[in-house]
Amino acid sequence: MFADLGLVFVAEFVRRIRSRPFMIGTGIGVLMIGVFAVLPALMERGVSNSSNHIGVGGASAVRAQAEKLLGADDFTIVDVDTAPSNVTRQFLKEHDNIAGLVMVEKAEHGLRAIAYADDPGTFPVERVARDLSTLNIALGTGIPTQLVAHLRAIRIDVRGVGGRFDSATRAEATRGVTLFLVFILYLITLLNSQMLMASVAEEKTSRIAELLVASISPSALLSGKVLATGLAGILQLVIWSLTELFVGTKAGAIENFQTLVNAITPEIVVVFLIFFVVGFLEYSLLFAAAASLISRTEDLGSFTLPLVLPVISAFVIAQFALEAPNSQTVVVTSFIPLLSPFVMFTRFMVATIPLWQVGVAVLLNVAALAVIAPFAGKLYRVGLLLYGRTPKLSQIWAVLRS
Amino acid sequence: MRERLLMALEVDHVRRSFGSVPAVRDVDFSVESGTTFGLLGPNGAGKTTTMRMILGILVPDGGAVRWGGKLVDRTSRRHFGYLPEERGLYGKLKVKEQIIYFARLHGLRSADAAEKADRWIADLDLTQYAERPCGELSKGNQQKVQVACAAAHDPELLVLDEPFSGLDPVNAQTVYDKLVALRKNGTALVLSSHQMWQLETLCERFCIIAEGTVRAAGTLASLRATWPTRTIVVQPDDRKLRDVLASVNDARVLPSQSGELRASVPGDTDFAALLRELVAAAPVTRFEPLEPSLEEIYRRAITAGA
Questions:
Q1: Nearest-CA neighbor of A139 among A115, A106, A103, A102?
Q2: What is this structure's pTM?
Q3: B8-223 has which CATH code?
């Protein structure tokens, strides 16, 4: 049994990593990681190079105060006392290509401002108002500008009380890591389960399956294929993680990368691997069993959709779990097999939850596997020899009961 | 002789249904090692289901399949080979890799599997295709690769469903010769084919099944022995000779063809006595009792039970 399993495992693994879908999928993953890591920085650079700066003009005394209170990253002090009768796009361009001009003047109780924008719809009214509030206070109260500038900067040191995170930075970094890992889990589960499904369907439709089960047991065949697919998934995980590491360190594209790396503790790795293994096994067994019922590769799509839906649902709920890890829906779904590898892992990462909850979720998944494995095995064994029209649910049920 | 000659396949009154549809009702036969057995029957007769039960792919609802006196299990299945009617190969896998993979699935070590693959590739004239993906080969060459995959591990029992389909006469002869060589080496062959002439020359014993039951079984001689009539060919076409033939009990003189007389006479006719009577009546240049062909026996067996 184990010799057969080993043979199928090696052959399947070699076939898988040589296959075009695996190479393309892995390549696209690497590309996506690179793009997603570099894109924000590029976009920010692009935005700051063009139209993010707001010009501030007004009487020279007010401008002088504004210069001390407003950040140079967001504002440009424009050397105009009064706004021209017609502020044109050309005018904004000529003044450091600013996105808009805010003319400020001292009013009876503080500040009066008029904004001229190239595109009023995208003018950041709230941000500008918030930033100008310090100038408003300085002008309205007469408090020295230096003091207002000093008082403006408030440092809040956020400290956790549950013992999970010792700082807000660490909590934020963990959220980033969680997002990455859950996305990777989603991608690997979806890509590899579908590849496994295609492989089973190919063997069945080309009748190789009949030859294979004449030599070895269907369970050895199924196990070998699932494990090979799992290893191919882990290989992808390693490749993508190394890409992330490279992009983060060498390319320097990811901000606070070292903080993100530090957020990955050994216990996170262990819990992730446990949920990765159980989740992957559950989905891949179901995908393989479903594929064994297909007589024509054209039918793959109709069988894929019902199985893809739980993966997508789990991924979406995990996004909610990032924001509200202890909401009732999230807590309940974090115990449901097929969903919990995503949801419970996210809760474990971002919230302080009792370890028994993680343990129960793992046990429930193992119990589900104990049901799914023989069910999938029987369906696979029977399905491989079912040719002709795709069987109806009632027929499948009858076969499973026999 | 090798030990395998002691082994034999016993298909002991097996039956199998799919839901409420019986595919095999009662099939019973045995095959000696080093012999070839022809399993015949029309489409849907239950041949493939019977073969799948022999190979352990399907479990019989009743009856049993034994190899060497023991129920077929995982160990014995290692020594079986199978060529299903519907062919299947990994299209992207190279010819040699494919043969090695299937040989290894039957328990051969890597080096032995590679050696056997090389031998089969050479014997089946596939050398120039050894490193090419199977998907790029012609249908006939793919068929030969399939045969190699089924037999490279030197099986004790080889089950072949339509092994000659898709092969041109030269390639069919190549495969035929390999099967004969395997049989000489002690392999028991179970063949199913609609090409009767090949089975007639290759098989020692036959089993004709229809609607899941055995209609006729035995050697060609024993099957012929049960045939109720024989056709007698006599030359020349002479009136006196015709009268002698017509006088035989239950005989029926058939329409003459190109200067010869043909008559259907009972199978238990004393042909020596008949020849003496004919010679006494007129000069005889040809006297030939024709044995029924396998195809005739097959047709009769199938229609008789219908």
A1: A106
A2: 0.74
A3: 3.40.50.300
